[in-house]
């Protein structure tokens, strides 16, 4: 499947920005499940300082703002050809060793709720238990935009019983690590049925299974990612893979506008 994606993020301020530095992870790479046919990254109101591949092999840019601009726009767009591999991404590569994905982070630290959750999974192969875990997380956390924030931790989301794809992914990751399996967060895009315009990018999780490598699970939708998914960045949790992050110096109020379209070509 060939997918066309446009992702535009605009930051506007009511006063000049003294200084800002933003880290951008918005450029996908070709791999086992996708081939990037074309991609462009356009930045208005800021200048690119550094371009590098981070420890998780994510294409990463640092851009800075200083002085007059009161609007910053970042637009990523292009076409990606995807394959359905039944959720199997495959072999691990990159600078980060597999054992790093066994370590908890502040966003994925398990509590008694997640420990109790894995006790309900029963016996079976690793793949069987991971699929049951995905279904259980989906059942326990209702998708409800606005009910959590980027700072919500996995245990809190499970306790609330509501959240977004970020929360489903963090709970799945925390539980997978308790099962002794390396797990990571994936940020990217999903072409949704009957919807081309979206308000946010998507996220899912992967667990590393012996003999298969990385296997993807989208607990928010209860499926393993197929050809409708485009992956952009990975990491231990949301903070490692978030599309745009940064710091800002100044007293001006910030307004954020995001528009995303994902269509089949």
* Spatial shape: globular
- Main sheet: strand order: 3-6-1-16-11
Largest sheet: 5 strands, antiparallel
Mean pLDDT: 94
CATH architecture of the largest domain: Roll
Could you give the count of β-strands?
16
Broad CATH class of the largest domain: Alpha Beta
**Secondary-structure element sequence?**
EEEEEEEHHEHEHEEEEEHEE
What are the low-pLDDT stretches, counting only 5+ consecutive residues below 50?
A: none
Give the distance, in angstroms, between the N- and C-terminal Cα atoms: 8 Å
Radius of gyration: 19 Å
Measured by DSSP, the beta-strand proportion falls in: 35-45%
Protein name: Transglutaminase
InterPro entries: Bac_transglu_N (IPR013589), Papain-like_cys_pep_sf (IPR038765), Transglutaminase-like (IPR002931)
Organism: Mesorhizobium hungaricum
Domain Transglutaminase-like: 157-221
Explain this structure to me?
The protein has 265 residues and is α+β, with helices and mostly antiparallel strands. 18% of the residues lie in helices and 43% in strands. It has five helices and 16 strands. It has a five-stranded antiparallel sheet, with no helix packed on it. Strands 7-13-12-10-14 form a five-stranded antiparallel sheet. The model has no long low-confidence stretch (mean pLDDT 94).
